[in-house]
């Protein structure tokens, strides 16, 4: 005890580490933070700032694998589709239904490819005869896209 009333605290372990010489640069093990008592009362919920990762839709997966015979061509003003083969020669059976499923997409380039591809396929000559047998499969998909 000093007569002036000032107390000197003994150094703690953290303070000793800070004052140690820089020559001993050994990495310290990471310390896990202790759980707070409120963590039991407030369980983790959805983090609104985390990146939302949704598995790719059937259309997105098919497009990524090259199952749709057209690609998006970025223009300076307008985008367009470039078909690998003429749309008249493409089989409508799996493709028209897949493009209709893509109408539910919300991300680029899927929105453009599905909308434009669906429209271009229906504009080819003889599309009516090819699309009518697919109506029982197309109607539920189109209804889902409208929701």
Automatic annotation (TrEMBL):
**Which species does this protein come from?**
Sagittarius serpentarius (Secretary bird)
Q: Which residues cross the membrane?
A: none
Q: Which gene encodes it?
A: Pacrgl
Q: What is this protein called?
A: PACRL protein
Q: Which InterPro entries does the record associate with it?
A: Parkin_co-regulated_protein
Task: Extract the ranges annotated as region (Disordered).
Answer: 1-47
Q: Which domain of life is it from?
A: Eukaryota
Biased composition regions of type Polar residues, renumbered to the chain: 14-24
